[in-house]
Amino acid sequence: MNPEQLWTGVLMAVTPFLLFGLGGCYNIDTTSPLIFTDHHADSRFGQALTLHQHGSETMLVVGAPKGQCNYTDIVRGGVAYKCSFTNHNASLAGNCTELQLDNRGNDYSGLTGRQIYNKSDQWLGASMSSGGPNGSLVICRPRYRYYFYKSYGAQQQQRDLLGGCFVLTQENFDTPNILLPCITGGDRRCQFGFSVDAKKDHIVYGAVGLGRQEGQFWRSDSNGEERQKRPTKKVGGTKDYTYMGYAVTSGDFKGDSDPEYAISVPRHKQAFGKVVLYDSDLNEYNALENGDMGSYFGHTLVTSDLNNDGYDDLMVGAPFFTDSFSTNGSLWELGKVFIYYNDRNL
User: Fold this and answer.
1) pTM, entire model
2) DSSP readout, 121-133?
3) Residue 269 belongs to what H/E stretch?
4) What is the distance between the alpha carbons of residues 163 and 183, in angstroms, rounded to a whole number?
5) Is 49:61 a contact under the CB 8 Å cutoff?
6) What are the counts of helices (DSSP H) followed by strands (DSSP E) for the chain?
7) For residue 231, cis peptide bond before it (omega within 30 degrees of 0)
8) How far apart are CA 159 and CA 144, in angstroms?
9) Terminal alpha carbon distance of the chain
10) Which of 84, 86, 149, 342 is such that its CA lies 20 to 30 A from the CA of 49?
11) Rounded distance, CA 303 to CA 287, Å?
12) Cα(346)–Cα(1) distance, rounded to whole angstroms?
């Protein structure tokens, strides 16, 4: 299906400036913003953001995947912060507290003393998503590493980018569920949680590292349990290094009140990219391909009912699109955003 409307990255880049220029019309205070920061160099504070409501508390959750946590044996493992913004007061700037997701440092074998899991440079907070008011909050660490030794006495170790996520529900917000599904249920290099999208009753996760980075995606209930995955095993061949699961989202695309899943494969066919659609039973039923060579179609996915018709629409980013046939010469990495309006047959 062709998108009914597409915008180039240039127009999308200009739009925020137009909106801010009209800020006075919308009562936006452009002179004294409430500012939060990590105060640590190279923490990448703000790489991921989500709004979340837990009980009566509304918080801005901010990821700093290179931040330094409170454990001295973990070097730049990343930090997830919750920031208060309920009072618009400049004195609250920087009023963020670290979410305590893990209660220990790196893990070592009690039998051999050798390291098993490495949390340094795990990129905690690189991806996150909220399931809405009083739903689950999911915070992931796609570079969490597992050390595998070839035999009991061997010193040589294999370091696998296992990945993992924390699921904070209303009932266990202070003791989150820890998800490491690839340690037993998949390839130990799967980078689980590279992307994530939480909804009220389910969560979908991207895992780009399966096999030779052919990737896969997982689905769970809102607690992180009852997990399923596609594909179920490595395929290889032309699917190597295609990064399935680079971006994930879900919505009611078929108009049947059941969730469908949009999973990006941005390096498909020389990085033309594609987005694969799966039904509620995780069967593939459609694929969108509107990219050009190297455009990374599917780099970003967003679902929303744009025209208020009761059906979810799909937006797809292709940030590296290049217009090679422009009358002004090649416009490198111009970018495009595709909007697929849902006619209940997406």
Assistant:
1) 0.85
2) T--TTSEEEE-ST
3) helix 268-271
4) 9
5) yes
6) 4, 24
7) yes
8) 10
9) 7
10) 342
11) 16
12) 7
Give the whole-angstrom CA distance, residue 244 versus residue 210: 9
- The CB-side HSE value for 59 (13 A sphere, CA atoms) comes to 21
Least Cα distance to 103 among 52, 176, 164, 161 occurs for: 176
Q: How many residues in the chain?
A: 346
Measured between alpha carbons, how far is 274 from 267 in angstroms, rounded to an integer?
Answer: 8
Which has the closest alpha carbon to 257: 208, 220, 311, 206? 311
161 touches 123 (CB < 8 A)? no
pLDDT of residue 92: 47
| pLDDT for the residue numbered 16 | 42
Which residue in this structure is represented by tokens 């074998």?
109
CB atoms near residue 153 (< 10 Å): 7
Q: Are the C-beta atoms of 195 and 247 separated by less than 8 Å? A: yes
Q: For the sheet with 260-265, list strands across it.
A: 248-251, 260-265, 274-278, 284-288
Beta bridge partners of 284: 278
Rg (CA), the chain: 21
Tens-place pLDDT, residues 266-291: 988 887 899 999 999 999 999 999 86
DSSP string, 22-91: TGGGGT---SS-------STT--TTSEEEEEEETTEEEEEEEETT---S-TTS-S--EEEEE--SS--GG
Measured CA distances, 5 to 10, 97, 217, 335 (Å): 15, 42, 28, 15
Residue recorded with tokens 């111009």: 334
> Tens digits of per-residue pLDDT, 168-214?
999 999 999 999 998 875 577 889 999 999 999 999 999 998 888 88
Among the CATH numbers 3.30.200.20, 2.130.10.130, 3.40.50.800, 1.20.200.10, which is that of 5-340? 2.130.10.130
The answer to whether 205 touches 165, Cβ cutoff 8 Å, is yes
Backbone angles phi, psi at 304, to 5 degrees: -165, 155
* Annotated domain spans of the chain: 5-340
Q: Give 139's strand partners.
A: 128, 166
